[in-house]
Amino acid sequence: MRVEDYKFSPGYNDANSVESARQKRTLDGRSHWPKQTHDLEELAVPGVRIQVACRHKILHVDPVDLLERLSDVEPGRPSAPTLV
Q1: Strands, E, within the chain: which ranges?
Q2: Which of 16, 20, 53, 84 is 20 to 30 A from 27 via CA?
Q3: pTM value?
């Protein structure tokens, strides 16, 4: 799963990360988080939810459910499923 770079509001960032992590892991030292790639199969543990962030929304997703929804999607296929 590929997540593009994103920014959190200062309040959300302060409440959900620590200063040392922001300094080390963000693109601007504050709130601009870089792209990430995750192996969903490694994260697919029953009861575990992952945070998926985009520019306008933060979702907490069940990776087992997401893998099931994507099981018939082939790379490059148009109209890949969208979680709402």
Answers
A1: 2-3, 6-7, 32-33, 36-37, 50-53, 58-61
A2: 84
A3: 0.64
Listed residue (38, 26, 40) closest to 70, CA to CA: 40
d(CA 6, CA 33): 5
- The answer to whether residue 13 is domain-embedded is yes
Show the domain range for 57. Answer: 2-69
Distance, CA of 33 to CA of 55 (rounded, Å): 10
Examine residue 37 and state whether it is found in any structural domain, yes or no.
yes
CB burial class (10 A; 0-12, 13-18, 19+) of residue 63?
buried
For 35-65, write each residue's pLDDT tens digit: 988 888 898 998 989 888 876 788 899 999 9
